[in-house]
Every structure is written in C-alpha cells, then in structure tokens.
Amino acid sequence: MAAHYLEFEKPIADLEAKIEELNLLSSTSGSFDAEVDGLRKKAEQLRRKTYADLDPWMKTQVARHPQRPHFVDYVEGLFTDFVELKGDRQFGDDQAILGGLARFRGSPVVVMGHEKGHDTQTRLTHNFGMARPEGYRKAVRLMDMAEQYGLPVLTFVDTAGAYPGLGAEERGQAEAIARSTERCLTLGVPSIATVTGEGGSGGAIAIAAAGRVLMLEHSIYSVISPEGAAGILWRDGARARDAAMAMKITGPDLLELKIIDRIIPEPVGGAHADPAAAIANVGDVLAEELAALSTLSPDQIRKARADRFYAIGRLG
After folding, report:
1. b or e along 204-226 (b: 16 or more beta carbons within 10 Å of the residue's beta carbon)?
2. According to its UniProt record, where is this protein mainly located (predicted)?
3. φ, ψ dihedrals at 24, nearest 5°
4. 89, 295 in Cβ contact below 8 A?
5. Are 198 and 156 in contact (CB under 8 A)?
6. Parallel, antiparallel, or unpaired: how do β-strands 79-84 and 97-104 relate?
7. No. of H helices and E strands in the chain?
8. Which of 6, 100, 218, 286 has fewest C-beta within 10 Å?
C-alpha cells in the first residue's frame, strides 16, 4: 500500500520522494548509497522531531489516518480463536461494531470494537465505524454474556460518533447508547477500553465506560468532533483547528483530567508507520492491566469503576 502523507508531513514526503528518485537512478547511473543513507537519516530525524511536537489538530489528523490499525487488525494481531457473534436479537446485525469470543494470550475474553474499514467497499460495509442502535444492543448482549461466564471485556474505540440517520433515530439510538453505557458501568468483570483512533461522543463512550480507559499516544477522545464544535461555536466548520486546540482532546490533557488512565506509546511516525509494533505495544499494556484487575472481586471492580468516574471533574 502506498504511503499516505498528512499535510504537516509534506517535508518528510519530499525527502522520501528524493530517496525514491535516487534509488531509481542507481539502477542506471551508478550508486547513490551515501546520498540515500544521508537522506534517510535526515527524514528519520525530521519525523522524530515532527511527531514529538504534534498539536491537537495534527493529532486529530493522525488519529484519522486511513492506514492506522483498525479493530480487525488488533483481533488478528492480539487474539486467537476469535469467534464473531452477530446480531442484537431484536432487529439485525450492525457491522460498525464487531465483537465475539476470543483468547488473549491463552485466556478467554469477550472482545469488541468499532471497525471503520480500509477501503471504499469495507468502509461502506462498516458504515465508517458509525454504529446504529443494533450495534450498541449487540454490545450489551456481549457484555451480558461476559458477565454470565466471568470473562473480561476488552473494547477498542475508533469512531467519529454514532450514526445520526433517520432510521437509527427511529429505532432508539439515544436509548441504545444509554443502555450500553449503563451496562459498561455495571459489569462485575474486568473491563478495559482502548481508544485506538477517534473516540467521538456517545458513540465512543457506549463501549468505553470501562474500569480502565487507555489511549494511544496520537488518538483523540472528545464529546464532539472538532468540526462539530466549530459549527456550534462559530457556525464555521472550517475553524475545526481552533476547536481542536481548545477542547483538550489529546492524551496528556485527558490524563491530567483523569478521564483516561494511561497513554500507550506509538512508534515514531504514528501507529500507521509500524502497525505491528503499535499492536504489540497495546497487547503488552492490556496484559499488565488485566493482571492487575484480575485480583479484584466483582464488588471491588464495580466500586473502583464507580470511584473512577465520580472523580472526573471534581475540584480539590
């Protein structure tokens, strides 16, 4: 797959284009190994410098990068024996939220998450990760099953928000999101949510109200998209950058506000630059967090989760 460069990565793209050009010339005009090595070092230094100082709008672009690992990639990289469970037993199956039973490092778990898709066809199939009510009702069904059999729940959050279409509203979108959020908050089994890309609005929190909330380094988590906030505040979606800068949607701000519990480092250049390394990082952190939660009783799990969410927004 060809590299997809973001706007702020143009200087890096220019250097890598020169590297490609010299590699092509090497086949006809002699060796340019020294020049290529120098440009590669320069590109790597520039990438490190750029990604060490991303502002919230830049992180928003990285969080939305089309080559960033998605739910299906995490399932393939971290889980074995995955069995997808479909349907909400009321209306149908929603493909924006996928989930089922699996083994994580040998132990059985329930795993679910938003899936955006990687190309035009899969994006349409998964509705760009924007779930309808049946997606959240499927999530509740899976959490009920996890409770019944004493299985930890691992969720992967990556959505711009719940689908706002007429049919979704007619079938009770708000109620479905509320029920899913409530079920997250009442689980007596270990639950860990990981924001891997966008964590947008109620569509995200419906499966993210977990005992531990983790966030990849260049992901975002917000009550509304920057474009939506700009439209409300200034009636100008083009001011999304201004909104992103003001909203405190990145990991360090959210960690300080105690909205999330931990930031997972990404490879230099973002998770899309080295998906395998990013997925491995997530797996190692999940294993640590699960080990800590596995020592707690159901009542302790519920109390710790309640204390965690009650603490958000408290002063002093």
Report:
1. bbbbbbbbbbbbbbbbbbbebbb
2. cytoplasm
3. -70, -40
4. no
5. no
6. antiparallel
7. 14, 8
8. 6
The amino acid occupying position 277 is A
DSSP bridge partners of 102: 109
CA distances 264 to 64, 184, 243, 248, 257, Å, are 17, 22, 24, 18, 17
As a whole number of angstroms, the distance between CA 239 and CA 118 comes to 28
Q: What pLDDT, in 10s, does the model give residues 51-99?
A: 988 999 999 999 999 999 999 999 999 999 999 999 999 899 999 999 9
Rounded CA separation 22/26 (Å): 6
Residues 268-296 have pLDDT tens digits of 999 998 999 999 999 999 999 999 999 99
Instruction: Decide: residue 49, CB within 10 A, 0-12 exposed, 13-18 middle, 19+ buried.
Output: exposed
H helix intervals, 100-220: 120-125, 133-149, 166-170, 173-186, 201-205
HEC assignment per residue over 26-66: HHHHCCCHHHHHHHHHHHHHHHHHHHCCCCHHHHHHHHCCC
Map tokens 């502002």 to a residue: 55
